[in-house]
Write a structure and sequence with these properties.
Order of helices and strands: HHHHHHHHHHHHHHHEEHHH
Number of strands: 2
Radius of gyration: 21 Å
Helix content: over 70%
Shape: globular
Structural class: mainly alpha
Strand order of the largest sheet: 1-2
Strand content: under 5%
Amino acid sequence: MSNNGQAHFKSRFGYIMVAAGAAIGLGNIWKFPYLAYRGGGGIFLVTYIIIIILMAHPMVEMETAIGRFGKSDTVSVYEKISKKWGFVGWIANICTLGINMFYVVVGGWVLKYAVQFIVSGDFGEDTNVFFNGFISKPVEPIVWAFIVMFITSFLLLFGITEIVEKVTSVIMPILFVILIFCAVYACATLPNAVDGLKYYLVPNFRHFNFKVFADAVTQVLFSVGIGWGIFTTLGANISDSSNLKSDAVMVSVMDTLAAVLAGFVVIPTAFGAGMDVTKGPALLFDVMAGIYGSLPGGRLIGSLFFIGVLFAVFSSLFTFFEISVKTFEEKLQMGRQKGVIVVSIIIFIGNILVSLGFGPLEGFKLPWPSFTGLEMYGLYDWLDCFTGYVLLPLGCLLTCIFVAKVWGFDAYEKELFSNGRDGKLKSFDKLLTVAVIPVFMIIVFLNVFGFLG
């Protein structure tokens, strides 16, 4: 416990596991493989890694430094530096609540598939029929989502530096072992998996365009978790003795490794089985269930794979919930227990609506502005666009402006490097903050509103 009463992580390993766990989730294992395939395989992978270096790593540093300096919720940490800038934290809270409203639903799907593999491994003759039939049900998906939400909320009652830190420190290493095992299994047992590996690893520059770049930037935003309060929230629980720069490197590397490993599992597996890799969000469930259901030992591998994905879901949700819980607890002065309950209720109401959007409310659409005219999206797609393609880049852009113009590079350097103990801010770091990252964000905005085609 620090002098101001703020609880600290018990160890550097515990913090890195929680921070990496927050970053490593469905974005890595669910979204990354199909975006990598759609974006040209190898060229998308190379672009993704470059963006991690130029954008994700410095953003993790900036957000963590703001959090440690403020030592409070994601609104108050900005207000401690400038009273006028608390709105950045409120944007982060709106963003994370919106993401949780569909993330928990998909987490419920993962739990359902993990249990289905363990119990029987039977998904019928057509896995696509099973998937669509399940998600369109009015009640069952909501029940699975509630189980995921309840477990997350219950553990957070004790604070993120207590049971959550201990649980995450165990499940994160297991997740990496499972991903490596499944990747080796796929490449060793499927005859055409090598073709998938070549497509995934060998860059073809003819596939590169601004659309691919914008998709890669957006994927990094969602996958690493920058722009929506994750690292300002976690940073508040880091001791002053921690080296923020080296910790940021570890988090960025682990997140990238998890995404790359997920690609090693999904793309060669789907290639080797001759299945459609372009199914988008259904890829993880439809394709992987179909493949593992037909392979020798597939039920065991499928069970392990979806257990691993479930671990990734929980490791992310702990921090996703914590962002708003901490704000309700401290900024709105609700206390821990009431904050957890209120946040959980808000999220679960959203979960119900999003889940019903795949079934009884499938016809309910919301307008989305585009350069080519208004488009109509279901609630899941609308929330995905609003949070991932608008609020996340907006959060990053505002954070860059905040660090460069409001807090100032001198004060930022003092916090990031602990008064020079851990290094010095370079001119290149400043260039990334004032020019490179903002340009990346503008490209994302142009993409989501239809200017890039």
